[in-house]
């Protein structure tokens, strides 16, 4: 549930909660939509793919020049 929704229903804020000796809570930690490791993996995968394609292209180009 949304913390602000509950607090607004009872007209509470962090100051009134501290007055009642209830410690204020922090907003929950939000996780990113896409994990960081997927982004890093995608970047490295694309770099390796482009390097492989360049090697194949340059190899076929040199082979044609040699004939």
Write the layout of secondary structure elements.
Layout: H1 3-9, H2 14-19, H3 36-66
Task: Please tell me about this protein's structure.
Helix content is 66%, strand content 0%. The chain has three helices and no strands. The radius of gyration is 29 Å and the shape is rod-shaped. With 67 residues, it is mainly alpha-helical. The model has no long low-confidence stretch (mean pLDDT 79). It folds into two domains: 1-28, no CATH class; 31-67.
End-to-end separation: 72 Å
Q: Please, how many domains?
A: 2
- Assembly state here? single chain
**What is the beta-strand fraction?**
under 5%
Mean pLDDT comes to 79
The number of distinct β-strands equals 0
Low-pLDDT sequence parts: none
Shape: rod-shaped
Largest sheet: none
Based on helices, strands and strand pairing, what is the structural class? mainly alpha
Radius of gyration, in Å, reads 29 Å
- Helical residue percent? 55-70%
Element-by-element helix/strand order? HHH
């Amino acid at each position: 549930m949304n913390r602000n929704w509950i607090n607004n229903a009872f007209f509470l804020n962090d100051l009134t909660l501290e007055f009642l000796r209830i410690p204020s809570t922090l907003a929950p930690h939000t996780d990113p939509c896409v994990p960081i490791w997927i982004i890093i993996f995608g970047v490295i995968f694309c770099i390796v793919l482009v390097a492989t394609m360049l090697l194949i292209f340059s190899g076929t180009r040199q082979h044609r020049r040699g004939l």
